[in-house]
C-alpha cells in the first residue's frame, strides 16, 4: 500500500488522509453500524461527496488521518482533530474503525493515543473533547481508558426510531495525557 507514516505506534500508524481510500471510506460511512455511532446516519454520502470530505479534512481547522494496521498494511479507520481553536488551544476529536473484524483489538485505543500525542505535543493544544452517543459503550470505554473524563451530557439529544439517547461530552487536558510517542524522538 505505501501510506505515509506520520505517527507510528506498536500495531498501527496514522497517515495523512488523501483521496486514495475514497471507496472504502464511503462504504464505512454508509454502514449503518458505523453511521449510527458517528451520528452520520442521515447523511447521503456518495463517492463524490466522500471524496470532497476527504479533500477538506486537512485544513487550518482540522487534521485527518487514516488509521493503518501495521501487520496487514491496510487502512482500517479514520482519526481526526476538528474544530481546532488555536487561540484557546482546544479541539474536538473523532475516530472510528471501519470493519467489524478490526474492532475490539486495541487498535482504536492505540490510534487515539497517537492522535492525542499529535494534538498535545505537536499542535500544543490544552484540551481535546469527544462527543459520544450514550449507547456506544465501546467508545465510552475507549475514551475512559485513554484518560478522558465525562464533563456533561446533552440529554435525549439523539433520537433513533422510538429510542432517545444522551450525547456524552468527555475531555482530556494536556497534563492528564501520559502516553507520549513523540517524546522518544526528542531524546
From TrEMBL:
Q: Which residues form the N-acetyltransferase domain?
A: 12-175
The protein's UniProt keywords, in alphabetical order, are: Transferase
**What PANTHER family does the entry give?**
GNAT-FAMILY ACETYLTRANSFERASE, SPERMIDINE N(1)-ACETYLTRANSFERASE
Q: Where is the signal peptide?
A: none
* Organism, as annotated: Clostridium collagenovorans DSM 3089
| A Pfam family per the record | Acetyltransf_3
Entry's PROSITE patterns? GNAT
Q: What is this protein called?
A: Protein N-acetyltransferase, RimJ/RimL family
What GO molecular-function term can you cite, just one? acyltransferase activity, transferring groups other than amino-acyl groups
Q: What highest taxon heads this organism's lineage? A: Bacteria
Amino acid at each position: 500500500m505505501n501510506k505515509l507514516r506520520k505517527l507510528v505506534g506498536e500495531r498501527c500508524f496514522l497517515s495523512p488522509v488523501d483521496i486514495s481510500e475514497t471507496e472504502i471510506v464511503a462504504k464505512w460511512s454508509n454502514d449503518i453500524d458505523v453511521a449510527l455511532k458517528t451520528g452520520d446516519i442521515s447523511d447521503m454520502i456518495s463517492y463524490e461527496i466522500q471524496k470532497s470530505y476527504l479533500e477538506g479534512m486537512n485544513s487550518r481547522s482540522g487534521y485527518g488521518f487514516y488509521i493503518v494496521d501495521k501487520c496487514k498494511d491496510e487502512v482500517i479507520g479514520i482519526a481526526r482533530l476538528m474544530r481546532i481553536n488555536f487561540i484557546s488551544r482546544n479541539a474536538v476529536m473523532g475516530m472510528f474503525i471501519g470493519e467489524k473484524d478490526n474492532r475490539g483489538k486495541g487498535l482504536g485505543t492505540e490510534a487515539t493515543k497517537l492522535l492525542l500525542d499529535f494534538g498535545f505535543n505537536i499542535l500544543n493544544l490544552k484540551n481535546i473533547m469527544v462527543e459520544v452517543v450514550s449507547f456506544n459503550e465501546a467508545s465510552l470505554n475507549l475514551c475512559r481508558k485513554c484518560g478522558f473524563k465525562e464533563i456533561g451530557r446533552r440529554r435525549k439529544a439523539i433520537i433513533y426510531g422510538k429510542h432517545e439517547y444522551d450525547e456524552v461530552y468527555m475531555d482530556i487536558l494536556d497534563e492528564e495525557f501520559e502516553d507520549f510517542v513523540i517524546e522518544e524522538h526528542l531524546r
